[in-house]
Design goal:
Helix content is 64%, strand content 3%. The chain is built from 7 helices and 2 strands. It has a two-stranded antiparallel ribbon with strand order 1-2.
Length: 151
Amino acid sequence: MSIAQKARFKGAKKLENIVGYRVPEFAFKGQFLEAVCATVDYNRMDKRLKTQLTNFFKAFLNCRCKTNPLCGCAERKFAAEILELRMSGMNHRDISEFLLDEYGIDLFPTDILSYLEESVHLLEAVKDVSTIEGKEKLAAKTAEVIGKIEG
């Protein structure tokens, strides 16, 4: 299960009241993405919910794919955001708090920690293969990224 599949939108119940039908709480489910892209009346939202959804759109749903929002770009951008936040010095608890405040996305710190550990393991494999293949620049860059994630 990807990290994006575990992300819940905390204001899903508020959105249900606005759109008039059930909205899934998982932020990257197709039904949720379609609901917030097509049928939301932003004039009926409180300021905080409107800001969080606007931030969500800007950060994750700004691709130009024909199948947007169901193209997968949002999930990849979300996963990259978590890695970038970690590499900027935030720990898994800080990242969880940031995601909730900025985007209204509720994600357990332990899920974030597991994702970061899994990412490091994958990068270590990339580094090992790069070294075997004689791609020293790639191996060095990968080691640098691993170091930033591990803190």
